[in-house]
């Protein structure tokens, strides 16, 4: 069982406690069972249902097939194409998941970012707890023997301690302390750079946010000179998917001068509010979509090569959802009404939790994979092989700088999703800062 605090970090938004999910599923289950008895009036169907559901929960992960192994071998050369054409395949690796990172995974990435080093009130950063230290040093060990081009970065901040950024960066002295602490951490751990994982900068922060990034760049350049390092240290900043928030909370063109790239967290579009919909739709809907976000950023900054588009390796689902989701042409966006959720489910938990991946359908308009179970009124929206191929195609066609994965430790043991992302052709023939949108 995952702890609530860990569960809430599955994605950017706060997820409801897993206990609620379980309770609602249990209630939901009992309801279906009752219904079945009423309709069929057969005790035998009751027994069968129980058996089926029980069994369903305990289906083991499928074994690694030879097809998967073949994909693994072919991905390597494709990845080198992506890296050679200057595109990025970035993986987040987290302190709270359980699967240990492997050399095989790292060989498919250009960058790996460890989440998180926490910001303390006095402005210093540190890894929190024994598990986090073990996972971070484990990552560093694997990285030493993997592809020498791999960049290893530390993500500073995170959901829980992001509120600490505002008071620290608005105070010149504390801001300096935070920067010094980041620079020391990078130096002591032989890292290639840092991601500022501040969720989020708002209107009142934006001046200090860009000052912070500017001063951080200066200090990292000083370190580079001091260490006689040939390459600059890397700086990345996360930005939200909402256009109004991007406009009000960030001096985008100021930040762009000092960062190597922005990681655009282009998911959870339907996490809040009264609607149910695809969590990372490329097109459509009324609560924004990936295309609107990426277009806005590419047009506003003129630097599509500095943008990475995020893809989630978890799904979002609702229970008690009331729609007739009849076919792919049907409108996939619905009022939430009395539906329960949203809840998050990792890719590697889909099978153990009874979801049948083979039953996934594809919504053409939003380019989203989903599962709709009319009997239980469960609606799941998630990334699978097909939707990730669509995302890769989008990155290529719009000359976007790369893909960032939340998170590689939510993939299955065969790295099914990572294989799709890393083997996709995302290289564009166009020059890197040609904006492929009608701005
Ligand atoms: C900052 O705060 C932490 C936790 O309160 C403490 O352990 C650490 O020693 C402090 N560091 C400095 C430089 O004040
Ligand atoms: C699902 O619907 C049933 C019946 O209306 C209700 O008892 C249950 O609480 C609902 N579950 C959620 C999570 O909303």
UniProtKB/TrEMBL annotation:
<dbReference type="GO" id="GO:0005975">
    <property type="term" value="P:carbohydrate metabolic process"/>
</dbReference>
<dbReference type="InterPro" id="IPR001223">
    <property type="entry name" value="Glyco_hydro18_cat"/>
</dbReference>
<feature type="domain" description="GH18">
    <location>
        <begin position="87"/>
        <end position="428"/>
    </location>
</feature>
<dbReference type="InterPro" id="IPR011583">
    <property type="entry name" value="Chitinase_II/V-like_cat"/>
</dbReference>
<feature type="transmembrane region" description="Helical">
    <location>
        <begin position="31"/>
        <end position="55"/>
    </location>
</feature>
<keyword id="KW-1133">Transmembrane helix</keyword>
<dbReference type="Pfam" id="PF00704">
    <property type="entry name" value="Glyco_hydro_18"/>
</dbReference>
<protein>
    <submittedName>
        <fullName>Glyco_18 domain-containing protein</fullName>
    </submittedName>
</protein>
<keyword id="KW-0472">Membrane</keyword>
<keyword id="KW-0812">Transmembrane</keyword>
<dbReference type="InterPro" id="IPR017853">
    <property type="entry name" value="GH"/>
</dbReference>
<dbReference type="GO" id="GO:0008061">
    <property type="term" value="F:chitin binding"/>
</dbReference>
């Amino acid at each position: 069982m995952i702890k609530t605090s860990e569960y809430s970090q599955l994605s950017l938004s706060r997820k409801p406690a897993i206990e609620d999910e379980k309770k609602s599923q249990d209630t939901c289950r009992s309801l279906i069972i009752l219904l079945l008895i009423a309709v069929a009036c057969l005790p035998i169907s009751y027994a069968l249902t129980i058996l089926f559901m029980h069994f369903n929960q305990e289906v083991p992960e499928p074994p690694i097939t030879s097809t998967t192994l073949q994909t693994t071998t072919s991905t390597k050369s494709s990845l080198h194409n992506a890296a050679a054409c200057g595109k990025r395949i970035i993986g987040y690796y987290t302190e709270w998941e359980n699967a240990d990172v492997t050399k095989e995974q790292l060989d498919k990435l250009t960058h790996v970012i460890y989440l998180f080093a926490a910001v303390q009130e006095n402005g210093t950063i540190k890894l929190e707890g024994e598990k986090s230290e073990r996972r971070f040093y484990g990552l560093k060990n694997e990285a030493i023997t993997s592809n020498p081009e791999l960049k290893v970065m530390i993500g500073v901040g995170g959901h829980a301690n992001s509120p600490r950024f505002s008071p620290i960066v608005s105070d010149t002295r504390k801001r300096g302390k935070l920067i010094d602490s980041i620079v020391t951490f990078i130096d002591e751990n032989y890292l290639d750079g840092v991601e500022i994982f501040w969720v989020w900068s708002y209107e009142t922060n934006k001046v200090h946010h860009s000052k912070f990034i500017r001063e951080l760049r200066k200090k990292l350049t000083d370190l580079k000179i001091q260490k006689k390092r040939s390459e600059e240290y890397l700086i990345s900043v996360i930005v939200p998917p909402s256009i109004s928030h991007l406009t009000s909370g960030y001096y985008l063109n100021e930040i762009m001068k000092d960062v190597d790239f922005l990681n655009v967290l282009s998911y959870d579009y339907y996490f809040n509010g009264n609607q149910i919909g695809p969590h990372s739709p490329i097109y459509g809907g009324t609560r924004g979509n990936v295309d609107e976000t990426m277009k806005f950023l590419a047009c506003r900054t003129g630097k599509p090569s500095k943008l990475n588009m995020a893809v989630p390796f978890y799904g979002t689902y609702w229970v008690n959802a009331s729609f007739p989701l009849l076919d792919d042409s049907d409108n996939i966006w619905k009022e939430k009404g009395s539906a329960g959720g949203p809840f998050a489910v990792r890719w590697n938990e889909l099978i153990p939790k009874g979801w049948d991946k083979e039953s996934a359908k594809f919504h053409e308009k939003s380019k989203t994979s989903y599962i709709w179970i009319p009997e239980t009124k469960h609606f799941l929206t998630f990334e699978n092989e097909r939707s990730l191929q669509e995302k890769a195609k989008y990155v290529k066609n719009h000359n976007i700088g790369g893909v960032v994965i939340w998170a590689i430790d939510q993939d299955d043991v065969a790295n099914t999703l990572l294989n799709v992302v890393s083997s996709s052709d995302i290289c564009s023939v166009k020059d890197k800062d040609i904006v492929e949108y009608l701005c």
